[in-house]
Design brief:
The chain has 114 residues and is mainly beta. The protein is built from no helices and 11 strands. The strands form 2 sheets. Strands 2, 4, 5, 6, 9, 10 and 11 form a 7-stranded mixed β-sheet that branches. Strand 7 and strand 8 form a beta hairpin. The chain starts with a strand and ends with a strand. The relative contact order is 0.32.
């Protein structure tokens, strides 16, 4: 079955950087568009970034534009989210998603704190 495993979260100071990874298995990774979402405590899940199958088209939420980059390595079945200039409000659990399969990972916690 489809499995998505996120990693790379942690505690970081404001202005710092983190790179999240999402490894997919149980499906042909390169055939699917993918997304990153996040959910902060007490808030709804928010779409952060999207990427098409070959990685040649990407979109970002206004709140992260210019700070986050989404990429993928289809040979490694892995999608990434590079997060720079992190802010307190980026604190959330980050999830990877295959929208057409309604598949979700377990999430990785990102905490931005001084």
């Amino acid at each position: 079955q489809v499995q998505l495993v996120e990693s790379g979260g942690g505690l970081v100071q404001p202005g710092g950087s983190l790179r999240l990874s999402c490894v997919g298995s149980g499906f042909t990774f390169s055939d699917y568009n993918m997304r990153w979402y996040r959910q902060a405590p007490g808030k709804e899940r928010e779409l952060v970034a999207t990427i098409t199958t070959a990685g040649n088209s990407r979109t970002f939420a206004d709140s992260v534009k210019g700070r986050f980059t989404i990429s993928r390595d289809n040979a490694k079945n892995t999608m990434y989210l590079q997060m720079n200039s992190l802010k307190f409000e980026d604190t959330a659990v980050y999830y990877c998603n295959v929208p057409s399969r309604n598949a979700w990972g377990q999430g990785t916690q990102v905490t931005v704190s001084s």
